[in-house]
Amino acid sequence: MTDHEQQIWRSFLSATLGLTDALARQLQREAGMPHAYYEILVALSEAPDRTLRMSELAGIRGSSRSRLSHAIARLEEAGWVRRRGCPTDKRGSYAILTDKGFAALESAAPGHVTEVREKLFDQLTPEQVEQLGEISMAIQRGLGGAPQLTCPNLTANGRAQTADTRH
Amino acid sequence: MTDHEQQIWRSFLSATLGLTDALARQLQREAGMPHAYYEILVALSEAPDRTLRMSELAGIRGSSRSRLSHAIARLEEAGWVRRRGCPTDKRGSYAILTDKGFAALESAAPGHVTEVREKLFDQLTPEQVEQLGEISMAIQRGLGGAPQLTCPNLTANGRAQTADTRH
DNA sequence: CCTGCATGATTGAGAGTTCAACAAGTACAC
DNA sequence: GTGTACTTGTTGAACTCTCAATCATGCAGG
């Protein structure tokens, strides 16, 4: 790895760590939830009936079942999510976003979106934003083709979610 | 935030989280240390006498003093770092990389560098690498201008470290 | 049937991070 | 000097995440 590449690598690392750190702090401070939980709420809010199987929910991001189980337990304590067993497959569980959880998400979203805009998009030119999109796709491709968080609704028409929960 | 921006944001998030996750796992698996500890060892290895004040070390990345204190405690248990008090300012402490710690770093570095290359640089065109560098700089600039991890040894003469610890 | 194995999800222990509180030392006025 | 304010670094508790082990259920083959 050349010195130049190393500089870019360090700069990238610093930028992404700093950015995720800033977002995590903002969410924790203003909404009282870690970023990972926010993502869970978003995923649920966009699902039909605001309901997802645990394994589906885990698959949306590269989250382990264990991690999700712990997280849902916490979210259930907070009253933001509730569980329900799956009748057809008695092993399975559904996670369901409660009204209270949806309200918490609605109240958390604007601040988070503002933070993303200020810290990321406002810093880049329109060309750089496009470039970042391409680069992100390429990196994801290299991660074993895991679909992960890539918009499941990335169809040509797009738009399949409620406006308020958009990033 | 437009749908298009949201797509890019999610893609970016997924890419960076997936990438840092892959790197963290690789390091934990093959070198038995978290990525944050690896960075500490790198910083120490590049410092004069492989020694840094705790606060300097914390400042290199946006690490809190508390976090660093805990981390150094663990690294000291592992025999990779030792502490020494500062004679002129009795509050201060030095963290010093031991030979054993340097050896651990030398053995961890190649695998880590390979992972970074495979997962990041090999996925991008040379133009995209340059773009990523510019974008990262811009993002850092937006984070309150914190210098953070940007090479402290980026002086004209450069080269203050052994080749093996380079990224 | 029922044995063997895969799957969905949970649990508990261990590790790292954060936050607030703290101890110890320094700086600087008065 | 004495007092006040700031800096440096550590500590403990709470929280999240990971890993391995576990439980319960589904499913296929003999």
Describe this structure in words.
The structure is a homodimer of 167-residue chains. Chain A has 167 residues and is mainly α. Chain A has 6 helices and 3 strands, in the order H-H-E-H-H-E-E-H-H. Chain A has helices spanning 3-31, 35-46, 54-60, 65-77, 99-119, 126-142; strands spanning 51-53, 81-85, 93-97. In chain A, strands 1-3-2 form a 3-stranded antiparallel sheet. In chain A, a hairpin with a 7-residue loop joins strand 2 (81-85) and strand 3. Chain A starts with a helix and ends in a 25-residue tail after the last helix. At the A-B interface, helix 1, helix 5 and helix 6 of A face helix 1, helix 5 and helix 6 of B. Chain B binds a DNA duplex (30 and 30 nucleotides) through helix 3 and helix 4.
Could you list some keywords that capture this structure?
DNA-binding, homodimer, 3-stranded antiparallel β-sheet, 8% strand, mainly alpha, 167 residues, disordered C terminus
What's a quick, concise take on this entry?
2 copies of one chain form a homodimer. By secondary structure, chain A is mainly alpha-helical.
In the sheet with the most strands of chain A, the strands line up as: 1-3-2
Distance between the termini of chain A: 35 Å
Major sheet details of chain A: 3 strands, antiparallel
Q: Quick one: how many beta strands of chain A? A: 3
Q: Which oligomeric state applies?
A: homodimer
Helix and strand string of chain A, N-terminal first? HHEHHEEHH
Structural class of chain A: mainly alpha
Q: Tell me which protein chains meet in the greatest interface and how many residues each side has.
A: A-B, 58 and 57 residues
- The low-confidence parts of chain A are 146-167
Radius of gyration of chain A: 18 Å
What's the helix count of chain A? Answer: 6
Overall pLDDT score of chain A: 88
Proportion in helices of chain A: 55-70%
**What share of the residues of chain A does DSSP label as strand, in percent?**
5-15%
Shape descriptor of chain A: globular
